[in-house]
Design brief:
Residues 1-23 form the signal peptide. Keywords: Signal. It comes from Sinomicrobium weinanense. This is TerB family tellurite resistance protein. The chain is an all-alpha fold. It has one domain (2-9, 25-217). It is 80% helix and 0% strand. It contains eight helices and no strands. It has helices spanning 2-16, 26-56, 62-69, 80-86, 91-94, 97-123, 128-156, 165-217. Helix 7 packs antiparallel against helix 8.
């Protein structure tokens, strides 16, 4: 939590100093992140499907893998090897509830990320440099989530890390704590951006109203 607060202070300072920094445009950042974001969403979808199987006690067989591969009209290139390797991990690890909780946060954040950027751009409350700053902040948060997901895959997959079951559970707990901290920061920053946009739009409306009233008195 201390690290999250420090990051929050740093980002606020960066926001107020934005005019002194060279901004990276939204289009440039989006091109760089498009492939990474697509792969991240594929990982999320794959893990979500697996969690559904694990919690219902179903075995992962070839028929199941074929079904998974048919998701999203064939657009998702899911990792069959990953699912096969999961069968070698202690079921106590695979079915640990916090794995599903981490995936749920990943999925929720991915949707919120696209939504908030669209809302901020359409609000007309921010200039280009400010929007570019928001893109970098939310993009950095997405990177944190992606790193956490990669580590979760390594912890819950046989052959990636030589760990005892207790060590795996402890690492998953740590990943869950890290994920909730990052998501809390994401939500707070998103709310601050939204409130700032509302305040600016309200101020602009008040200014227009005042000018209108002033003109009526002339």
């Amino acid at each position: 939590m201390k690290r999250t607060k420090t990051l929050w202070v740093f980002l606020l300072v960066g926001f107020f100093a934005i005019n002194t920094a060279r901004a990276q445009t939204f289009s440039e950042w989006w091109r760089q992140k498009k492939a990474q974001k697509k792969y991240l969403l594929q990982q999320i979808a794959a893990l979500q499907v697996y969690i559904g199987y694990a919690r219902k006690g179903y075995s992962i067989a070839k028929d199941g893998l074929n079904f998974i591969g048919d998701l999203k009209n064939g657009e998702m290139n899911l990792h069959a090897d990953y699912f096969r390797s999961l069968g070698k991990v202690n079921p106590h690890i695979r079915e640990y509830a916090k794995i599903g909780d981490i995936i749920a946060l990943e999925y929720r954040m991915a949707g919120d990320y696209s939504q908030i950027l669209k809302q901020l751009r359409q609000s007309d409350a921010f200039n280009k440099d400010e929007l570019d700053y928001f893109v970098r902040v939310f993009g950095k948060t997405l990177d944190f989530f992606s790193d956490t997901l990669d580590e979760l895959i390594a912890v819950s997959t046989d052959g990636h890390l030589e760990m005892t079951d207790d060590a795996r559970l402890e690492r998953i707990d740590l990943l869950y704590k890290r994920m909730t901290e990052h998501y809390t920061f994401f939500r707070v920053f998103r709310m601050e951006c939204t409130l700032l946009a509302m305040a600016r739009l309200r101020e602009e409306e008040d200014t227009r109203t005042s000018r209108l009233l002033y003109n009526l008195k002339q």
